[in-house]
Amino acid sequence: MNIGIVCYPTFGGSGVVATELAKGLAQRGHSVHILSYDRPARLDTFQTNISYHEVNMNTYPLFEYPPYDLALANQMANLIEYEKIDVLHVHYAIPHATSAYLAKQILGEKAAHVPLITTLHGTDITIVGSDPSYKSVVDFSINQSDGVTAVSKYLRDETYERFDIKKEIEVIPNFIDLDRFKKSNKNHFKRAICPNGEKVVVHVSNFREVKRVPEVVTTFDYILKNDIDAKLLLVGDGPDRQRAEQRCRELGICNHVRFLGKQDQVEEVLSIADLFLIPSGSETFGLAALEAMSCSVPVVSSNIGGLPEVNIHGETGYLCALDDTECMGRYSVDILSNPKLHKRMAKNARKRAEQFEMSTIIETYEEYYEKCKKEL
Ligand code: GMT
């Protein structure tokens, strides 16, 4: 098939999933065209059957807000007309599903055979999409899609709850490359960071408020106060970094915390991790948790959103009520101080990750594309 994939280029989950899907489809012989305003972070190597199309936007003095949605729709129409794509798959509803609808309207009959598939990822529904300033447009655009998928059961149910959706939403979960995300020997790295054999606690995110990074620091402080010699590695960057740094200073634990910034090879950091913390206030799936689990790292998380569909309480880690840093701290101490428990959970975490194996989920997308094409 000739497939158009539209996504955000950032380190955020939807861009990562879209790019990994594009790479997986290309490896299976499809031609893939990626459309975005910048090169996606995970599109880091040349692949013969992937073409990247950057959305060109000429600004004009009149525009206080350059109309990206229109430039995107224009380029989507070109993709359908000249690259002859068979399927247009957009990741994140805003504005991608709306621009895609417009592109199809522009082409009329010429685009009638091309299904528009929208994959919902999270904040496009739970936060931004539900904002009254976008809600009607999101509602309309989802209903105009020929196929709609959500990355978890939670997100599917939440979408039905918040919007007036007449379409059937198919749950196709996020996936993981088990060969890339596996525990590998990084002893030199571990020795450099933890010269005294300290335990390693890791958090990876885009440091948005919803990720509760200061709470990661508070939980880590509980771990230290309970006599666990440990280091906290924080991977990523974003709006809450300063608040997290401030929390370290207030607690006087800055010498135990390393801010590593954005990293391309997260699996290397995860390879030396003993525990992964993800106390998010909203999380429709939690791809970061799945990446950690695939590297055999037990997870302590909040019990909200799609996280319980990934992290199984008492098996792959523990779940705590939102904002309960004491509960997260207690469970973290349990795991870090009990080698037998740690070993069992690490093994279970990897086993659980195997259920989200990449090629199986990519096949599910292929079947879904075929189904949507047939139904047109
Ligand atoms: O988490 C973010 O801030 C990024 C966001 C995105 O849309 O790029 O991630 C969402 O999609 C990911 C991939 O499907 C999910 O794993 C994340 O749980 C979800 N984030 C939220 O719901 C906050």
Automatic annotation (TrEMBL):
It comes from the Bacteria. Residues 11-180 form the Glycosyltransferase subfamily 4-like N-terminal domain. Residues 189-352 form the Glycosyl transferase family domain. Pfam families: Glyco_transf_4 (PF13439), Glycos_transf_1 (PF00534). Gene3D superfamilies: Glycogen Phosphorylase B. InterPro entries: Glyco_trans_1, Glyco_trans_4-like_N, Glycosyltransferase_grp1, Thiol_BshA. This is N-acetyl-alpha-D-glucosaminyl L-malate synthase BshA. It comes from Fodinibius salicampi. The lineage of its organism: Bacteria, Pseudomonadati, Balneolota, Balneolia, Balneolales.
